Amino acid sequence: MNQTISRKDLCGYLSLLRNTLTEQDLFPAPNVIFLGSRALYHHLAKQPCDGDTIGGILKKIETCIPLAVTEESFSLFLSACKEPKTERTRNFLESSKADFLLLVHQTAKDEQQWRALTELCEKLRQKNVQI
Predict the structure, then answer these.
(1) Which end of the chain is more exposed for a tag (fewer CB within 10 A), N or C?
(2) Residue 107 to residue 77: CA distance in whole angstroms
(3) Cα torsion for 13, 34, 43, 97, to the nearest 10°?
(4) Alpha-carbon torsion (26, 31, 37, 40), positive or negative
(5) What is the DSSP letter of 2?
(6) Which ranges of the chain would DSSP assign to H, the alpha helix?
(7) Angle at 54 (CA atoms; ends 16, 24), nearest 5 degrees
């Protein structure tokens, strides 16, 4: 079971991601092409982020990352896959984290969009605390 984090920690982690994704050059060279979001995620997850890595930060806040799925659609997704359940779950979570990093990158420079994203993450955090 994942531990819940405080609002202060969540906001701090989101700010770290925002700053890291907007202020640092995270890509190896202009001629490098990632063959998919999974490859990009694996590269970004290893990048340093204030004494941790981007992947480490995502792991700490994964219960607060918005996923545009319902329980029913996730169950359908899992039943349709041919991979073992643990592999499917891991792949799905990695894909969700990659999408979340893209969302952070896209909203980081627009204060109104950034506030909306952080509020969504906070609502998810609160919901997970109540469960």
Answers:
(1) N
(2) 28
(3) 40
(4) negative
(5) P
(6) 7-23, 37-45, 54-61, 71-80, 85-107, 111-130
(7) 65
Q: What is the pTM of this model?
A: 0.77
Q: Rounded to an integer, what distance in angstroms lies between the CA atom of residue 64 and that of residue 66?
A: 6
State the residue for tokens 């039943």: 79
CA 115 – CA 113 distance, rounded (Å): 5
49-87 pLDDT, tens digit per residue, is 999 999 999 989 988 888 755 556 566 666 766 666 677
Query: One-letter amino acid identity for 47?
Result: Q
Calculate Rg over the CA atoms of the chain. 15
Q: Which residue has the tokens 């204030």?
A: 50
Cα-based distances in Å from 20 to 44, 78, 119, 120: 10, 33, 20, 20
The span from the CA of 30 to the CA of 49, in Å, is: 22
CB-based burial of residue 32 (10 Å sphere; 0-12 exposed, 13-18 middle, 19+ buried)?
Answer: exposed
